[in-house]
Amino acid sequence: MTNRRVIPPLTPTRRAAGLLAGLALGVAVLAGCSSEGADTDCGLDACTVTFDRGVNAEANILGVEAKLVGAQDDQVTVEVAGEQLTLTTGQQAAEVAGLNVTLDSVTDQNVTIRVARP
């Protein structure tokens, strides 16, 4: 004889509680990113920031501020958590404030970096 455990269906109260918990998590993730002159795409442990060139571009991500300072050819200077970094495409991640920063791409219009928790 096999004992089978019967799982009762979710009640409307439990279903609503789960929905609210999911919404709260989503709002917390989205609230962690804001920008001006930049687009951000953030997950729980990493953000991709695409800065517009030629403007004062900055973003608040993962609890720190990131700014585009300048770009020339394939070399970019950014300020992350108050510290200036010079990055090139394909370079190994630079560490600042407990975060890894890499340069994804540089075009005439945009600079894209990735900021991630290790």
Spans of at least 5 consecutive residues with low confidence: 19-31
Biggest beta sheet attributes? 5 strands, antiparallel
Continuous helix count? 1
Overall, the morphology is elongated
Class of secondary structure makeup: alpha+beta
Residue share in helices? 10-25%
Order of helices and strands: HEEEEEEEEEE
Strand fraction band? over 45%
Oligomer classification: single chain
| Strand tally | 10
The gyration radius over C-alpha positions equals 20 Å
> What is the average of the pLDDT values?
82
Q: Could you give the distance between the termini? A: 50 Å
Spatial order of the strands in the main sheet?
1-4-5-6-7
Q: Can you put this structure into words, describing what you see?
A:
This protein is α+β, with helices and mostly antiparallel strands and 118 residues long. Strand 2 and strand 3 form a beta hairpin. The protein is elongated, with a radius of gyration of 20 Å. The termini are far apart. About 11% of the residues have low confidence.
SSE layout:
Layout: H1 12-31, E1 34-36, E2 38-42, E3 46-52, E4 58-61, E5 64-72, E6 75-80, E7 83-88, E8 94-96, E9 99-106, E10 110-116
Antiparallel strand pairs: 1-4, 2-3, 3-10, 4-5, 5-6, 6-7, 8-9, 9-10
